[in-house]
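Regression test attached.
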Amino acid sequence: MARKNNDVLEVPQSVTVTVGRTLTQIAWLRLRRDRVAKVCMAILIFIAFIAIFAPLICNVLKIDPYEFNSALLSDDGGLPSGRFGGVSLAHPLGIEPLTGRDILARLLYGSRISLFIAVTATAITVVTGVVIGILAGNSRGRLDTFLSRVMDITLAFPLLLVIIAMSPVLEQRIASFGIPEGNSSRIVTLILVLSVFGWPYLARLIRGQVLSLREREFVEAAISIGSSNRRILFKELLPNLWGPILIYTTIALPGLIGAEATLAFLGISVLPPTATWGSMLQESVSYFSVDPFYFFVPLTMLLAAVLSFNLLGDALRDALDPKAGRM
Amino acid sequence: MTQVSPILKVSNLVKHFPITSGGIFQRTTGAVKAVDGISLEVFPGETLGLVGESGCGKSTAGRTVLRLLEPTSGSIEFEGQNLIKVSKRELVFMRREMQMIFQDPYSSLNPRATVGDIISAPFQVQGVKPVGGLRSAVGDLMERVGLNPEHFNRYPNEFSGGQRQRIGIARAIALQPKLIVCDEPVSALDVSIQAQILNLLAEIQKDFGIAYVFVAHDLSVVRHISDRVAVMYLGQIMESAPSELLYTEPLHPYTHALLSAIPIPDPDLERNRERIILSGDLPSPSNPPAGCVFNTRCWKAEDKCRSERPVLREISMGHQVACHFPEQNLIETISVAPTGTDFIA
């Protein structure tokens, strides 16, 4: 959160001014001094970049995710000819068995959908979780009991089974709301399902935080100077919640990337020929014994993204701790 | 002689916390009688000490007086207005006049707000535009409480306990209130720092003419700062007297026992003094004893004490006691042993 009025006081000229830093500035400084965090951020920015500019990159490299290249496949069984799954200048990460489509192009386009699903689902999860968590923790009483039960029940669902069972139905429902059938409705379904089962974790965390913060004397002090509920919520409580929210986000995002991959593996993902990291993994598994390189490409991507997010989350937690050593 | 009217007049204040059981379908099964019918008056510019052991309801009383907790019954008159009857909006406005200083300087300051934010909050919340601007007002306040005004942009965790308490004091005096409830403001601090903070509170009182309700469990601290002292036990006031009178001529056996526990900084005197050791524990405030609440631990208790609750009555000028058998004028100084059975030499 940006803070205004960094210079609240006029200090006499002769006195040296102690430059106060806001906690955001301190956290940012600490983060910039953390080498692991810097590498992770670089990787994530890189992944985001190639996802956003996938069409451009493909144009420049003259590759196409949907173009068949049967000529590059061997005659027996349709495996890519050449070493490492057909790696060549024209196809830097090789080609798919059976179809000969360019793997790099598919990976780039796949990143877009994978990341879009994960980021959107995370955003919905975080917003819902924070709002409901604050509502429950702040109200206590009946509303809190009700919301907590809803959280408990949601968490108790056998997630995968429910998703597998419900997805086809949900998809049709969503399509009937005017969202084009096919990949669009499938993506919306995935986002919806992941968010619906994701928010209770954060809501619980936030509820607990709010419960303990509300008992602190500074909230009472705020009441004693006549602060409104709104002010207490936004000025006293929320600034103390940014840390957990930010950290949860960096944990949730890789989790959801992984979840999308898992669901793709189980057949609940976009329709072919569209690719995601998960659907590429699912396809490559059948060829693992003869073309392992194909499997390692999406795997490496997934690994890099998830690991970077997790390590960045750790670094962020350290950086945001106001009690950590001064710099 | 002009009659000064009290700034705060509390009568028969009761605060019970309900005890509930059952998960979803909760029902009330009892009540913790934290404050059980106390009456007190505070006059402008004076300090009323409120003492008692842990769990006797003194902090609850302090908070209820400011309506930080909703009282169960009773009346609170602040500057002639009944605080219980006023609307939420009026109450917010009245909070300018009454403030609180908290016990724990670590939890009473928002760790995510700068000192400047914390001290300027009362102005912002109440919409008060100080003369000369907010910046200089905050600077003046910081200087007044002995903090370096340059540190306005620092966070509470960069300060020591004593400095943090000074920040809390600056926040409380920002709007120049008429009454401040100090909830054990020094009990979390080092002894050397305690004295500094107490002196600061006394100076501020002299400068601004603020009345204090000073809640504490330490009698020597209270003696240092109070004009009058009220002794609480299990949610009720046992004795109330001008400070010197209470320390030299305690009337209630409980006050007596408390005074005998103050250490004397002279080893010879300390070795030879009489100490009253109260037997047993504080009874549960959810199930207080019948009659006088102190009867379970009192060495003078008789049948009357077990059946009839003594009312707070005035024995001499300004000296009130709630006891059937007050120790009238028995003791000159606390080092003289009172008659009784439960003493050890």
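Expected vs. actual: identical. Chain A has eleven helices and no strands.
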